[in-house]
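Structure tokens please, single chain.
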Amino acid sequence: MNDPQDPNDQPEPGRSQRRSSRGGGGPGFSAARGAALIAGAVILGVVLLNAIDDGNSGPVGDGGTSSTTSSANSNPTTTTTVAAGTASTAPTTTPAAISPAQVTVLVLNASGRSGVASTLTDTLKAKGYKTLPANNVSPVRAGTVVDVKAGKTAPCTTMAALVPGAKVQPMPTPQPFVTDADCIVVIGS
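Here you go.
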């Protein structure tokens, strides 16, 4: 009795037949194991495809494309480059450079010293900035500020580097002066 090679061998009463260690639980268990293996493969495939997808319209992993968007005004420039053999890249966004000729500056003298605003206006004009006629304002104030119109922070900060001791700040609301200037320099004592 209990001969594994004999198909007519029946288990003794009260004893169950041992399962083969190779079978693993019958056809239901095999199907579940196969389904789990397929689900794992699908998840792994999705993760890998997302890791190498560069977002272009071509086939995944095609070596990539290069696209550049640029404009002459104050809108940002976006450059995206995908080199052959790379898994992915991040887009690079840099603001477009604004030339001094595109920045309008008003210089006001609140220092109490004569000719200071005119001298700075001439200096900025020589550097290529579009300047409005200089003027005097009162009362006399301590410190020099550059009031910046919304959206013009970068070019006005660049211009402010030409003004010794200037502090850059947002344009007050309401504007203290009626002007089309992007930057108002108020020279203090």
